[in-house]
Design goal:
Elements: E1 3-6, E2 9-11, E3 16-18, E4 20-24, E5 27-32, E6 42-45, E7 50-53, E8 55-60, H1 73-82, E9 85-90, H2 101-114, E10 118-123, H3 130-139, E11 143-147, H4 167-180, E12 184-187, H5 191-203, H6 209-215, H7 218-235, E13 239-241, H8 247-258, E14 263-267, H9 269-273, H10 276-280, H11 295-307, E15 312-313, H12 322-326, H13 345-354, H14 360-374, E16 392-402, E17 423-433, E18 436-440, E19 443-444
Parallel strand pairs: 1-6, 2-7, 8-9, 9-10, 10-11, 11-12, 12-13, 13-14, 14-15
Antiparallel strand pairs: 1-4, 2-3, 4-5, 7-16, 16-17, 17-18, 18-19
Helix pairs in contact: 3-4, 4-7, 5-6, 7-8, 13-14
Length: 457
């Protein structure tokens, strides 16, 4: 064996128990009772720690190429590694948008040059070209992504092939993606309702933080989800609803799921940890689409996790420069939407588990097991089992840890106001990816470009 992890408590979806783990050739080869493993080339003592599957963040925006000043695959996978995340799914927003096989191949080249963990890529099916969609699937696209609203003002190049506002277009995209056997992930907000809401706010001179949320209330999200799932039902297509924020959206998903529609759904830590009143203090740094909602909606999301309506938790990690966000203090419409968060995904869910909000097994299911199953990586990712990739996190559950700027690895650390100064229960001690120790006690140990492109299947 190349590496042994001894003395720890193994946490899987199915149980929590003491075990030692043997690793060889980048994979788990043995799970043994404590003290039973033969000698290994290297041993990590995990006494007092929880040993978890590496987390999978399936909703991540690096945006390379085009905006490297905000971060690239190197800087942002460093942040992931420091947070116990060993696999990322990169969304197709880049400059240009990732909507053709040629653009897809270029993004793969960049991640292979830069990343330190495994990264999968989404394609965008919005050209509605069979050659483009099947070509990206052949290149290994993990899934496909579409927005149901128009591109943000001035960002058309980034969203080429990614935005489809009309039902007939969305229907065609669903049919093309179904042919590939992959899942379509959809940002669900009604374009017409959203644009009308923004126009109403701006007509009254509203530029405050609350105007953003009021411009796109829960119905904007729920109506779009109902349209999407009606089309998916007609085609018997597999869909995944991104970043669910509210009770109304959950109710729609439940109804269609009861009728047999193949729909999965996610939410994000910022929706679980913040409500709109708390977020208001952060102003433009908390401007996110869809918006952070009411305390009642926040409580509904936790219920959705408990009853299985929500299948996974993911970050929607988005990087910006401070100057871009600061514009929003005087005019919220001038700040871009999104926030970093990949380094806090695993600590946030472990804190919920360690403080009794959910079980440890449920936390692992939401950030590792379910993401792997939904996107066709079960058995390889999201688990600790013989034959699986040796992607692991050693987590010390004991200390209360305040997350500070000095601990952050994202290039966008100066806009990470959502999590700065937040208290988490425990901390990531070490991250192992493919059998390599890539992070330990505040230090990144992996070299630029040591990660891998993760193809579907």
């Amino acid at each position: 064996m190349d590496l042994a992890i001894t003395g720890g408590t193994l946490v899987t979806e199915h149980g929590v128990y003491p075990a030692d783990i043997g690793i060889a050739g980048g994979r788990v080869v043995a799970i043994a009772t404590p003290g039973a493993l033969p000698p290994a080339g290297e041993t990590l003592d995990a006494t007092g720690m929880l040993v978890l599957p590496g987390a999978i963040d399936t909703h991540f925006h690096c945006r390379t190429p085009g905006y490297d000043e905000r971060g690239d695959f190197y800087t942002e996978t460093r942040a992931a590694a420091a947070g116990g995340v060993t696999t990322l799914f990169e969304m197709p927003i880049s400059n240009p948008g990732c909507a053709t096989p040629a653009i897809f191949r270029n993004r793969r080249r960049l991640l292979e040059e830069q990343a330190i963990i495994d990264v999968a890529l989404y394609g965008a099916p919005g050209t509605l070209s069979r050659d483009d969609v099947h070509g990206m699937a052949a290149e290994g696209a993990i899934a496909f992504k579409i927005f149901m609203h128009r591109p943000p003002l001035g960002r058309d190049d980034e969203f080429i092939g990614i935005c489809l506002t009309e039902d007939e277009q969305l229907f065609q995209a669903l049919a093309l993606v179904k042919e590939t056997g992959r899942r379509l992930v959809v940002h669900c907000e009604s374009d017409t309702m959203l644009e009308a809401g923004i126009a109403r706010m701006r007509a009254t001179g509203r530029t405050d933080f609350a105007a953003h949320g009021e411009s796109r209330p829960p119905a904007v999200e729920a109506v779009a989800i109902a349209r999407l799932l009606t089309l998916a039902e007609a085609l018997d297509a597999s869909v995944h609803v991104a970043h669910v924020t509210c009770h109304q959206a959950l109710a729609v998903i439940r109804r269609f799921r009861r009728d047999g529609v193949n729909v999965t759904a996610e939410t994000c830590p910022h929706y679980l940890l913040y409500d709109e009143e708390r977020a208001a203090a952060l102003g433009p740094y908390a401007r996110i689409n869809p918006p952070i909602r009411s305390a009642a909606d926040q409580a509904a999301l936790w219920s959705g996790l408990a009853d299985g309506t929500l299948d996974l938790v993911t970050t929607d990690h988005s990087t910006y420069l401070p100057a871009e966000k600061e514009r929003g203090w005087n005019d919220i419409w001038r700040a871009p939407s999104g926030a970093p968060g990949v380094q806090c995904l695993l600590p946030a869910m472990m804190t919920a588990a360690l403080r009794g909000k959910i079980t440890l097994q449920k936390a692992v299911q939401l950030i590792a097991g379910n993401p792997a199953r939904i996107f066709g990586l079960a058995g390889r990712k999201g688990t600790i089992a013989p034959g699986a990739d040796a992607d692991l996190c050693l987590y010390d559950p004991a200390p209360a840890t305040i997350f500070t700027r000095e601990m952050m690895f994202s290039q966008a650390r100066d806009v990470d106001k959502l999590y700065e100064h937040m208290e988490f229960q425990g901390r990531v001690i070490a991250t192992i990816a493919g059998g390599r120790v890539i992070y330990r006690e505040g230090e990144i140990l992996a070299e630029r470009g040591s990660g891998r492109f993760l193809a579907a299947g």
